[in-house]
Automatic annotation (TrEMBL):
InterPro entries: AAA+_ATPase, ABC_AA/LPS_Transport, ABC_transp_permease, ABC_transporter-like_ATP-bd, BCA_ABC_TP_C, LivM-like, P-loop_NTPase. It holds the Pfam family BCA_ABC_TP_C. It comes from the Bacteria. Its main location: membrane. Keywords: ATP-binding, Cell membrane, Membrane, Nucleotide-binding, Transmembrane, Transmembrane helix, Transport. Signal peptide: none annotated. It is a multi-pass membrane protein. The chain crosses the membrane at residues 6-26, 33-50, 62-83, 95-114, 142-163, 175-195, 201-223, 230-250, 256-278, 299-319, 325-345, 352-371, 377-398, 405-423, 443-471, 513-535, 547-564, 584-601. It is found in: Cell membrane. This is Branched-chain amino acid ABC transporter permease/ATP-binding protein. Residues 653-896 form the ABC transporter domain.
Length: 903
């Protein structure tokens, strides 16, 4: 009967997940956002309820209403003051904003209730024992479930049958159309934020008598609620009810039958990870928006600057700075090292990880355990850094499918799970007594942060500088360009032969090593290492916060952002200004700075200041009549040599009987074609005929239901897009899909550089001098891109960007080049020049070209053969003369004309 007892107890816990998830669904329906601050907003209402009821004697019903009202107003305020101004920002930027709100609210609660940070709350509902199915359980658990069922039924009815539901659906499906009909998206979003936040307040008020009130609930409760909402696709209240209830039951039963510490916390993480990964695709689909990320620095690390600055810093540590400030430096630099790991994972690769401090904790845990077993500090440090690689690889593999917000959910769940199963397990960590690690020693030098803080600060400084140089080398090397290409546009990177999977696994692995190193240095500052609350998920969120404030793509950013961490130089500055404030003040200040930065300086403070300094320097140099940008391109080593194009490896593309289905719609049904070396084959048809789908099928971006794709004798249908590109199949995109974060030169380099895996190691030490190879220089000259090499694509005209897109594909030396509407958006003269370029690619370079184009005159002029599609089927194939006279083509493609096509 114990199983029944825990089942009924789990029903009560699951009901609370359902209430929180219902609020997440309401907010997502109204604004399309996943609000990570949801539980934190609800906790503000719960603390209000507790204070009014138990400290000020307000009647229970009035305290409940007041708590709900506080959360509802706070939710609406967050939307109006933070999220609405960010409505045109990328989803990742808005997600980071909700994380900042979450961290800020948790800090505010810590400050407001400093003496009551954890409180037990008297039950609000009757707790008398109730007999059900032959067992006795507390009655409040069943009442909570009953309340939840009634509320979910009410929400389902309201959003299904009332005007509010219809208006919310209209706004969520088409924001502009709804606004055109006179529906205010802001009013609807604010109302849904208020209602959703009210649900969070009610849930936390109901859970308070069971778990107590603590700000940590903001992270521990959000994961099971997110798991519930994810399964319900942030849309279905009934599915959320079933999922949350089942989740609570499973957790309760596992707690009883499998007494492994923290395993119950891991279950929601497993659920959300499995569901998200199953629903995600290995590569972004066509039409998915490509978002702008924060700017990225050059990664330039000049020895003539780094060495003197490091030497000056060491002199300050040893002879000028007071001891307590030196100790603060010894804390800040390890934190900066963890933030540096965010630069690699998020800044360079675009993967939002909320688990970097968990990796730091894993490194600290492994190093501490090894030290307890007698391992020297240097050995423990190296093995601790290496220990994170297996888990980093797993997360990188998850990142190959889960992107953006979904990956953030998965990594936050990982952080919660690691905390519950490892850091809060006294058997592993020693509990309150911790692990005795003593004073670390390296090469006979004692690195005691307490006895010799200058030695420890110097050591952490040298480690940080070394790691920053390595990360700078990565940014400047060809491995870094691969990461940035994947970050900027994963589809385009794959089309150039860059493996998104390899880039992500590498970034997470390197990020894990850096985080682990920082975690070891941070914890070994004390002779006794305790875990407990040291490596909470909130700390991982703070690492992202500090990275974004400083500049998530810049090497100096971690030094600036880490000042917002407790115990660092920022703490000393705040102490000098305001006495000895609670460390939560730094978290609150950091959250406010982050929100302001997202609104005013989304790239961070370092790039903002760099931009201002550069602008000032340019003004000064102009006074002397010269600017660095005035130097000719040749003087900067951009071009060199006058080699003409060499012919590419001759391969023939054979496409046979392709069939592609999207659900119940057949997009392609049986077309076949052959493209040989030096041949231009045209592919025409009306909009929706299946032309781009054919290119996607050939290059591996959509799966085939039937058919074969051969490059000479090599069967390509089992290969992914990147491997097909490396085999000799190149393509451009109708929407260009350039790497907007990179210059034109870097775009070309990313296409033409070797794809050797060793670059991920060698460029860390020797990034090399990026030089355009002979084939790429020939492409630059062929497309007249010399004046544009140091510009970013966004600075060029549309016609120039189209040429860059083609030149980038050509720089990869494909044997067969697939061009998707290259003449779209350019005038007749430019189209004529483009036609000559395409013809030269075939005649001079020896490429086979498959040209998809609506410009019939261009197709007829440059193509050797033409294939015509209608509704996914081949209706004609032949020479331009044959196609021009084909009656069916005329009828289908020219809208019923009975005369031949005039060109």
């Amino acid at each position: 009967m114990d199983a029944v007892t825990f089942l009924l107890l789990g029903v009560g816990a699951g009901a609370l997940y359902v209430l929180v998830a219902a609020g997440l669904i309401l907010i997502h329906r109204g604004s399309g956002l996943i609000n990570f601050a949801h539980v934190a907003i609800g906790l503000c209402g719960a603390y209000t309820y507790w204070e009014l009821r138990e400290l000020r004697g307000v009647p229970t019903w009035l305290a409940v209403l007041a708590g709900i009202a506080v959360s509802a107003g706070l939710g609406a305020g967050v939307h109006l003051l933070v999220m609405r101004p960010l409505r045109n920002a990328s989803p990742l930027t808005r997600l980071i904003a909700t994380l900042a709100v979450m961290a800020g609210l948790q800090a505010a609660m810590q400050l407001r209730y400093a003496d009551s940070i954890y409180v037990r709350v008297e039950p609000m509902l009757p707790t008398g024992a109730v007999s059900v199915l032959g067992v006795t359980v507390p009655g409040d658990r069943l009442l909570v479930f009953g309340i939840t069922v009634l509320l979910i039924a009410l929400l389902w009815a309201v959003y299904r049958w009332t005007a509010l539901g219809r208006i919310t659906a209209a706004v969520s499906e088409n924001l502009r159309a709804a606004a055109a009909l006179g529906l205010s998206p802001d009013v609807i979003a604010s109302l849904n934020w208020a209602l959703g936040s009210a649900m969070a307040a009610l849930a936390t008020i109901l859970i308070a008598p069971i778990s107590g009130l603590t700000p940590a609930l903001a992270t521990s409760l959000i994961i099971p609620a997110l798991a519930t909402a994810v399964v319900a696709r942030f849309a279905s209240f009934p599915i959320a009810l079933a999922t949350g209830t089942l989740l609570g039951i499973i957790q309760s039963e596992v707690t009883y039958f499998v007494p492994v510490p923290g395993l119950d916390a891991a279950i929601p993480f497993v659920v959300v990870a499995v569901v998200l990964l199953a629903r995600s695709k290995p590569i972004a689909a066509r039409g998915e928006p490509v978002f702008r990320f924060a700017s990225v620095g050059t990664g330039g690390v000049r020895a003539r600057y780094v060495l003197p600055v490091t030497l000056v810093a060491l002199l300050l540590i040893w002879g000028v700075v007071p001891i307590d400030w030196v100790s603060a430096v010894g804390v800040q630099l390890p934190v900066a090292l963890i933030v540096l790991s965010v630069v690699v994972v998020t800044g360079y690769t675009g993967q939002l990880s909320l688990a970097q401090f968990a990796f730091a904790g894993i490194g600290a845990f492994v190093a501490a355990r090894l030290t307890v077993l007698g391992a020297p500090f240097g050995v423990a440090l190296v093995l601790a850094c290496a220990s994170t690689i297996p888990l980093s690889i797993v997360v990188g593999l998850a990142g190959a499918r889960a992107r953006g917000v979904n990956l953030a959910i998965v990594t936050l769940g990982l952080a919660v799970t690691v905390e519950a199963m490892i850091f809060n397990n006294p058997v592993l960590t020693g509990g309150f007594d911790g692990l005795q690690v003593g004073t670390p020693t390296l090469f006979g030098i004692a690195l005691g942060a307490i006895a010799t803080p200058a030695v420890y600060a110097s050591f952490t400084l040298l480690v940080f500088v070394g790691c920053a140089v390595v990360v700078g080398n990565l940014r400047r090397g060809r491995a870094g360009r691969r990461l940035l290409a994947v970050r900027s546009n994963e589809r385009a990177a794959a089309a150039l032969g860059i493996s998104g999977l390899g880039a992500k696994v590498y970034a997470f692995s390197l990020g894990g090593v850096l985080a682990a190193c920082g975690g070891v240095l941070l914890t070994f500052a004390n002779p006794i290492v305790t875990f407990g609350d040291a490596f909470t998920p909130l700390r991982s969120i703070q690492m992202v916060q500090e990275a974004v404030v400083g500049g998530v793509g810049w090497l100096v950013g971690p030094l600036l952002g880490s000042t917002l961490d407790p115990g660092t130089v920022g703490s000393k500055i705040m102490e000098a200004v305001a006495g000895s404030p609670n460390p939560a003040w730094l978290t609150l200040v950091g959250a406010v700075i982050l929100v302001v930065a997202l609104l005013q300086a989304p790239d961070g403070l370092v790039p903002l200041n760099t931009h201002l300094l550069r602008a000032g320097w340019d003004r000064v140099t102009r006074l002397f009549g010269r600017s660095p940008s005035d130097r000719p391109l040749a003087a900067r080593g951009v071009l060199g040599g006058d080699e003409g194009p060499s012919r590419v490896a001759p391969h023939t593309l054979h496409v046979t009987d392709l069939k592609v289905r999207f659900g119940g719609t057949i997009a392609l049904d049986g077309p076949s074609l052959t493209v040989g070396p030096g041949e231009v084959v045209g592919l025409i048809g009306a909009n929706g005929a299946g032309k781009t789908t054919l290119l996607d099928g050939v290059t591996g971006f959509v799966p085939l239901d039937r058919g074969s794709v051969l490059l000479d004798g090599l069967e390509l249908h089992t290969l992914g897009p990147a491997r097909r590109a490396r085999a000799g199949l190149g393509r451009s995109f109708q929407s260009l899909e350039l790497f907007d974060d990179l210059t034109v030169r870097e775009n070309l380099l990313s296409a033409s550089e070797r794809r050797d895996p060793w670059a991920y190691l060698t460029t860390l030490l020797r990034p090399g001098v990026p030089a355009l190879n002979a084939m790429t220089r020939a492409a630059v000259q062929e497309f007249d891109l010399g004046p544009d090499l140091d510009r970013r694509p966004g600075e060029l005209s549309y016609a120039r960007r189209r040429l860059v897109a083609i030149a980038r594909t050509v720089a990869a030396r494909p044997s067969v080049l697939l061009l998707d509407e290259p003449a779209a958006g350019i005038d007749a003269a430019e189209a004529h020049e483009l036609g000559e370029l395409i013809r030269r690619l075939a005649d001079v370079w020896g490429m086979g070209v498959l040209l998809v184009e609506h410009d019939v005159e261009l197709v007829m002029r440059v193509c050797d053969r033409i294939l015509v599609l209608e509704n996914g089927r081949e209706i004609a194939t032949g020479t331009p003369e044959q196609i021009r006279m084909d009656a069916r083509v005329i009828e289908s493609y020219l809208g019923g004309s009975t005369s031949p096509v005039e060109v």
